[in-house]
Structure formats: C-alpha cells, structure tokens
Design a protein that fits this description.
Elements (H helix, E strand, L loop, with lengths): L22 H23 L37 H6 L1
C-alpha cells in the first residue's frame, strides 16, 4: 500500500543558517542599483547615443519604369506553392 504524503513529518527548517546581509553588502547593492538606473537613464536620454534615422529625402520615390531599390518598388519573393494551394486552383 502506498504511503500517504501527509503521514511524513515536514522537513525541519534550519533557521540557524540564515544570516541577514551586512551593512556594507546592502550599501553595495543599493549603489549598484542606483548606478545601473543612472547609466540606463543616461543612455536613453543621450541624443548622440541614439541611432541615426533615415530621412524622407534619403528614401526616394520610384522613377518611371523603376521597380526595385526605391520606395514603392517591387520585391521579388520566391515561394513554392503548397500542395493544398495548387490543388485549389
């Protein structure tokens, strides 16, 4: 017969092993968190750190007869037709 899980006593917790963090370690963790937050804020707000975006002038419209390499151009995509799609045609 299988033994019930409730018949076992709960494992004894070793309370004596717990030691709270010392004052120096808590101060180090606090300084590390503040330095990380300050660095991330600076990187997000620094205008020179952001990537340059292309302007509308850099992307030109398609000339007459041009189908690729411009805004509004055609992209060639080669995808084989699936069997279900080909059968429905």
């Amino acid at each position: 017969m299988a033994e019930r899980a409730s018949s076992r006593p709960p494992p004894a917790l070793d309370v004596a092993r717990y030691r709270p963090l010392g004052r120096r370690r808590r101060l180090f963790a606090l300084l590390l968190a503040v330095a990380t937050a300050a660095t991330l804020s600076w990187l997000l707000l620094e205008p020179g750190a952001q990537r340059k975006r292309t302007t509308a002038q850099a992307a030109h419209a398609c000339a007459a007869g041009q189908t690729s390499g411009c805004v509004g151009g055609k992209v060639d995509v080669i995808v084989p037709a699936s069997a279900a799609h080909a059968a429905s045609r």
